[in-house]
């Protein structure tokens, strides 16, 4: 698996799973147990990055962006580029979206999943070797 998580990301993911926000819990209530027909993982490490929610087949990452994400748009763009390089599509929602309109968020995710299931899977491994190459500033 080219996006194998490193040990630091795995241990951080465990901490994040225990400290999920209300919004993450709400979205997880609609994703868990293959309710959309596929398995999602929460706070899933990919390389040195941790995706809020990841579906490994088809490859989809769902991110919830809190207010701090407005100041870190460049960082998020690099993370998205890493996820894309690993063959994942990325959906981003405002952090409060699941609390305000869970059904709309789940419909958007289901729509993206349907689109991905009709695309051929990438057969080439990532040139980054699965490492999240986000330079520290």
UniProtKB/TrEMBL annotation:
Record-given protein name: DUF559 domain-containing protein
Coiled-coil features, chain-numbered ranges: none
InterPro entries documented for this protein: DUF559, Endonuclease_DUF559_bact, Restrct_endonuc-II-like
Region ranges (Disordered): 117-137
SUPFAM superfamilies from the UniProt entry: Restriction endonuclease-like (SSF52980)
Top-rank taxon, per record: Bacteria
Residue ranges occupied by any DUF559 domain in the UniProt entry: 8-113
